[in-house]
Design a protein that fits this description.
The complex is a heterodimer of chains A (about 575) and B (about 100). Chain A is of the alpha+beta class and about 575 residues long. Chain A is about 40% helix and about 25% strand. In chain A, the strands form four sheets. Chain A has a five-stranded parallel beta sheet, sandwiched between helices. In chain A, strands 6-15-14-11-12 form a five-stranded antiparallel beta sheet. Chain A is elongated, with a radius of gyration of 39 Å. In chain B, strands 1-2-3-4-5 form a five-stranded mixed beta sheet, with helices on both faces. The longest helix of chain B has 14 residues. Classes of the chains: A alpha+beta (about 575), B alpha/beta (about 100). The interface between A and B is medium-sized, with 18 and 16 residues.
C-alpha cells in the first residue's frame, strides 16, 4: 500500500494527536490544520491525498471547509472523511451533502479508521489508473490527430497540381474523415490530351490515404512525358502490388480525353460506371468496370486494355465517381443509388449539373454524414476543344538559351515497335536535355504524329479512312492491334534528332524513316491548309508547328526542322 | 456475421449470415483456417445467401483467403449471392479470381 499524505483538520489538539498517531502507524504522512480556513489553505499548498475533517471548529467550520475544498478539487477526486460526534446523524447527513465522501464517529476507533482508509486507498488507486489510462488515450488521440494533419497536408500538396484547375474540369471531393481515401488528379499530356484519375483506396481515413499515396506521382510524371493511360495503369499496378498488403487494393478509373480526335479512352478497375452525358441529357456511353482494382494482380496477369469511344457530339460531359456517392445513405440507410444519380445529371443543364447534383445529394442525405469518401469529377468536353492547337500555336514561346550541338539516333526493330512506348521515351530524353514548356508540347505533337505515321501507315499500312463513320475509330484501333501483333520481324523505324545552335537560335532537326514502301506524300502535302479533314490532319498540324518539313522519296522518310 | 460450417465429404461450405465487413475479420479467418487445416478438403464454398452487405474490407478478406488456398490447389467458390452482394463483386471483377456462381 502506498503512503498517503493525510490532512487532519481539528481544533482539538488531543484529537489531532490521536488521528496523527493512528495514521502514522499505518505508514501515512499526516499534516495538521487547526480550523477550517487553515484546512483550505493547507489543502491548496500541500495537495493531500485524503482529508479527515472535524465538523465543529471555530471560524470556518468543517462543512464550509469541505464544500470549498470540493470546489477546489473538482477535476481530481480527493476524498474527505467527516469526523462527527457519535449521536449526531444530522451532522453526518449535512457533511455528506456538503461533499464529504464518508464519515467517522467520535471517539475514533482505530480498526474502523484503518478499514476506511484502506478502502479509500483502493478507490484512489483505481482513480490513479483511470487517470493514467485517460492521459494515455488523450496522448494517442493527439498523436493520431497530428499524424492525420501531416498526412492530409502531404495528400493535399501531392494532389493540388495545376492540372485540377483545367477550365474543362469540375470536381467534388468530400472526405468521410480528416484525410480522404479518394483521390482525384488531372493533367494534360504534352500534346494537350487530358488525363483524369479517380482512385478509391480500401476503407477510408489515414490507412486508405496511405495506400493511394504512390499514385499521384506516377500519374503526373507519366502524363507529363506523354505516356498513355494503359502504361500508367500498368506502372501503378506494379508499384501497388509491391507495396500493399495482400488484402489492400485501390479501385481506379483512368480516362484520357483527346479533344482533337474526339476520343475518350477509359480504364476502369473496380469503380462504378463512368458516364458520357451529352448536353441534351442523354447518356451517350458508359464504361463499366472491366478490371480488378489495382494492386491485386501480378505483372503477368495484369490487363491494361482500355475501352475507346469516339464522340461525334463535341458538347458532352464525362462523369467519373467513387462508390461513396451512390452508396451514401439517408437516415433509413437507403443508398442514393445509381438511378437517382443519373436522373439528377440528365435532368439538369450542363452548366449546373455539378451544383444541381450536390444539392440533390445533400437534400437526400439531410443531416446524415456519408460513411465513405465521396468524389466525383466532370470533364466538359466542349471546353477542351482545340486547346491543343491554341496552346501549341498561339501562346508565346519561352526564349531559350542556346546550348551546344548534340545528336542522337535510334534504330528500333519489331520487338521495340511492339512493346515500347517510344514517343514518351524520346520526350523524356528531350526534357533531360532542357527542352521544356511549349517547345516540348510542340515537339511532342510533331514526334507523335510523325512516328505514328511511320508505324501506322508506313509499316502497318493502315488507311486513315478506316477512322471514318460510326465506330470508325474503334475499328481502326482493333485493326491496328491485329496488324501490330503480326508486324514483319524485319520492320524498322529510325529516328534522328539533331540540335543545331546557330546565330543565337536553337534548331532541332528531326528525321523519321521506316523501311516500308513509302506513301503518296505529294497528295498528303497538297492541302496542308485544311486542318480539319479526317486524314492528313496530322501532317498539316506538323507542317504548321515546324519551321520546315520535307518528305524524301518514296515517302518513307521525313525531315522536320523546328526552331526555338 | 454468423458463420456455420458443413462438409459433404468433398467440399466444405461456410454459410455466412449478416453484414460481411471488418468486424467479421477474425471469425471469418478462423473459420476458413480451420476448414483448410482439416485436410482432405479440395473445395471451399462460401454460401452467401444470408449476407446482405459486403464492404471493401470483406473483399480484402476474400483476397487473403484466395492467397491462402491457391498454393494448396484448393478451389474457392462463392454461391447464392444476393443482388447487392453480386453487384459489388461484379464491379470489383472478382469473378476473374474466384468462381462466383
Amino acid at each position: 500500500m502506498a503512503s498517503l499524505k493525510i490532512l487532519i483538520a481539528d481544533d482539538n489538539y488531543i484529537n489531532r494527536a490521536i488521528l496523527s498517531t493512528l495514521t502514522e502507524k499505518m505508514g501515512h504522512r499526516p499534516i495538521h490544520a487547526e480550523d477550517g480556513a487553515q484546512a483550505v489553505k493547507l489543502f491548496e499548498q500541500e495537495q493531500p491525498d485524503l482529508v479527515l475533517m472535524d465538523v465543529m471548529m471555530p471560524g470556518m467550520d468543517g462543512m464550509e471547509a469541505t464544500s470549498r475544498i470540493k470546489k477546489l478539487s473538482s477535476k481530481h477526486w480527493t476524498p474527505i472523511i467527516m469526523v462527527t460526534a457519535l449521536e449526531d446523524d444530522e451532522d453526518m447527513i449535512r457533511g455528506l451533502e456538503a461533499g464529504a465522501d464518508d464519515y467517522l464517529r467520535k471517539p475514533v476507533n482505530g480498526r474502523v479508521l484503518t478499514t476506511k482508509i484502506n478502502s479509500i486507498e483502493r478507490a484512489l488507486e483505481l482513480q490513479r489508473q483511470l487517470a493514467s489510462k485517460t492521459h494515455e488515450l488523450q496522448n494517442y488521440y493527439f498523436a493520431a490527430e497530428e499524424e492525420k494533419r501531416i498526412a492530409s497536408h502531404i495528400m493535399q500538396s501531392m494532389t493540388a497540381a495545376e492540372g485540377l484547375h483545367d477550365p474543362a474540369l469540375e470536381y467534388w471531393l468530400s472526405p468521410a474523415e480528416a484525410c480522404s481515401g479518394d483521390l482525384i488528379a488531372a493533367a494534360r499530356t504534352p500534346g494537350g490530351v487530358l488525363h483524369v484519375m479517380l482512385a478509391d483506396g480500401t476503407g477510408h481515413g489515414l490507412a486508405a490515404a496511405l495506400n493511394i499515396l504512390p499514385l499521384p506521382q506516377i500519374f503526373y510524371a507519366m502524363t507529363g512525358n506523354g505516356y498513355g493511360i494503359s502504361s500508367i495503369a500498368t506502372e501503378m499496378n506494379a508499384k501497388l502490388k509491391n507495396l500493399l498488403p495482400a488484402d489492400r487494393f485501390i479501385a481506379v478509373t483512368l480516362a484520357s480525353i483527346d479533344p482533337y480526335e474526339r476520343v475518350v479512352d477509359v480504364w476502369n478497375g473496380g469503380n462504378p460506371d463512368t458516364w458520357l452525358v451529352d448536353n441534351q441529357g442523354t447518356l451517350v456511353h458508359k464504361w463499366k468496370s472491366t478490371h480488378l482494382p489495382l494492386g491485386i494482380l501480378d505483372k503477368q496477369s495484369f490487363d491494361a486494355s482500355t475501352e475507346t469511344f469516339h464522340f461525334d457530339n463535341p458538347k458532352a460531359q464525362l462523369v467519373i465517381f467513387s462508390d461513396g456517392l451512390p452508396e451514401a445513405g439517408n437516415e433509413h440507410r437507403e443508398p442514393f443509388g445509381m438511378e437517382r444519380l443519373l436522373e439528377s445529371l440528365c435532368s439538369s443543364a450542363p452548366r449546373s449539373r455539378m451544383e444541381n447534383l450536390r444539392n440533390t445529394v445533400s437534400a437526400y442525405l439531410e443531416n446524415q454524414k456519408a460513411h465513405d469518401d465521396i468524389s466525383l469529377v466532370m470533364v466538359n468536353t466542349a471546353r477542351l476543344e482545340s486547346t491543343r492547337m491554341s496552346s501549341a500555336l498561339s501562346e508565346p514561346m519561352p526564349t531559350r538559351q542556346t546550348s551546344s550541338p548534340w545528336r542522337m539516333s535510334f534504330h528500333f526493330g519489331s520487338f521495340e515497335l511492339q512493346n515500347v512506348d517510344i514517343v514518351p521515351f524520346t520526350i523524356d530524353l528531350l526534357k533531360k536535355l532542357h527542352i521544356t514548356g511549349m517547345h516540348l508540347g510542340s515537339l511532342f505533337l510533331i514526334i507523335s504524329e510523325l512516328f505514328n505515321n511511320a508505324l501506322d501507315h508506313g509499316l502497318l499500312k493502315l488507311d486513315s479512312r478506316l477512322k471514318e463513320g460510326v465506330d470508325g475509330f474503334e475499328r481502326y484501333l482493333t485493326e491496328r492491334a491485329v496488324r501490330l501483333a503480326n508486324l514483319d520481324p524485319n520492320a524498322t523505324v529510325e529516328l534522328e534528332f539533331e540540335h543545331i545552335p546557330k546565330d543565337g537560335k536553337s534548331t532541332l532537326r528531326l528525321s523519321f524513316k521506316d523501311n516500308g514502301p513509302g506513301f503518296d506524300y505529294e497528295a498528303a502535302t497538297q492541302n496542308l491548309e485544311q486542318l480539319d479533314t479526317a486524314h492528313g490532319r496530322g501532317v498539316a498540324l506538323v507542317n504548321n508547328l515546324a519551321t520546315s518539313m520535307r518528305y524524301i522519296a518514296p515517302g518513307n522518310k521525313v525531315i522536320v526542322e523546328y526552331t526555338m | 456475421m454468423q458463420i456455420s460450417v458443413s462438409n459433404n465429404g468433398k467440399a466444405t461450405t461456410l454459410t455466412l449470415t449478416g453484414r460481411f465487413d471488418f468486424n467479421a475479420h477474425r471469425d471469418f479467418r478462423n473459420s476458413y483456417e480451420e476448414a483448410l487445416n482439416a485436410g482432405g478438403v479440395n473445395e471451399l464454398v462460401l454460401d452467401m445467401r444470408g449476407v446482405d452487405y459486403l464492404d471493401s474490407s470483406a473483399l480484402g478478406m476474400l483476397l487473403l483467403l484466395n492467397e491462402r488456398a491457391s498454393p494448396s490447389n484448393i478451389k474457392v467458390s462463392i454461391t447464392n449471392c444476393q443482388p447487392t452482394v453480386k453487384m459489388i463483386l461484379e464491379v470489383a471483377n472478382f469473378n476473374k479470381l474466384i468462381n462466383i456462381g
